[in-house]
């Protein structure tokens, strides 16, 4: 069974750096074609794609947030980590990680973790 | 970046009716890498359709996807009470993945 679970702080202060961890099971990120992505959703708003890392350690970022994001993986721990610098109240959102197999879209999602940015 | 525009913003229908949701891309979507997701309040999105027309595992056959290039459609043939939710399209054929703004399907 494939599962993903996001973890990280529920509250961060403006200008701080957010670090989120996606811990997954049921697949290996070293398998050809496998990817993990981060997506966020502000309250009451649409989904926004943030970043993706693939089995070959290639990384892709949203153009609008590229300068603030870093995605990395630890294959031995089955984890993908996203850092976002210089947090602002507009970054308040539920952050999801999801699995993608090339060509198959985001087939399995984590439950999401709500992050509030406030002083 | 490919911009996806979904219409209508809100669709009001009754159970048993047919729903047609549209997703238009600002440029051609590579290899028909277009997906549809359903999201209910307080839940993560659920993949319904990938590759424009392939149903994901466990998705009922009343859900179907069609289209290519820049115009795509999600059709729900006969609405069940559990189908009332928000639906998003997504393109994943470029290095910049994008989502549409969503269509809210509400009970009339």
Describe this protein with a few key phrases.
heterodimer; A: 119 residues; mainly beta; seven-stranded mixed β-sheet; four-stranded antiparallel β-sheet; B: 108 residues; 11 strands; 0% helix; 49% strand
What features would you describe in this structure?
The complex is a heterodimer of chains A (119) and B (108). Chain A is mainly beta and 119 residues long. In chain A, 0% of the residues lie in helices and 53% in strands. Chain A has strands at 3-7, 11-12, 18-25, 34-41, 48-54, 59-61, 69-74, 79-84, 93-101, 106-109, 113-117. In chain A, strands 2, 4, 5, 6, 9, 10 and 11 form a 7-stranded mixed beta sheet that branches. A 4-stranded antiparallel beta sheet of chain A has the order 1-3-8-7, with no helix packed on it. In chain A, a hairpin with a 4-residue loop joins strand 5 and strand 6 (59-61). Chain A is globular and about 40 Å long. Chain B is mostly beta strands and 108 residues long. In chain B, 0% of the residues lie in helices and 49% in strands. Chain B contains no helices and 11 strands. In chain B, strands 2, 4, 5, 6, 9, 10 and 11 form a 7-stranded mixed beta sheet that branches. A 4-stranded antiparallel beta sheet of chain B has the order 1-3-8-7, with no helix packed on it. In chain B, strand 5 and strand 6 form a beta hairpin. Chains A and B meet through strand 5 and strand 10 of A and strand 4, strand 5 and strand 10 of B.
The percentage of residues in β strands of chain B lies in: over 45%
Helix content of chain A: under 10%
SSE string of chain B, helix = H, strand = E? Answer: EEEEEEEEEEE
* Total helical elements of chain B: 0
- Biggest sheet character of chain B: 7 strands, mixed
Q: In total, how many beta strands of chain A?
A: 11
Shape of chain B: globular
Q: What is the overall silhouette of chain A?
A: globular
Question: Which spans of chain B have pLDDT < 50 for at least 5 consecutive residues?
Answer: none
**What is the number of helical segments of chain A per DSSP (H or I, 4+ residues)?**
0
Distance between the termini of chain A: 40 Å
SSE topology string of chain A: EEEEEEEEEEE
Give the helix proportion of chain B (percent range).
Answer: under 10%
Q: Quote the beta fraction of chain A.
A: over 45%
The residue-averaged pLDDT of chain B reads: 96
Radius of gyration computed on alpha carbons of chain B: 13 Å
Number of strands of chain B: 11
Instruction: Return residue spans of chain A where pLDDT drops below 50 for at least 5 consecutive residues.
Output: none
Largest inter-chain contact set: A-B, 21 and 25 residues
Supply the helix-strand structural class of chain B.
mainly beta
Q: Give the structural class of chain A.
A: mainly beta
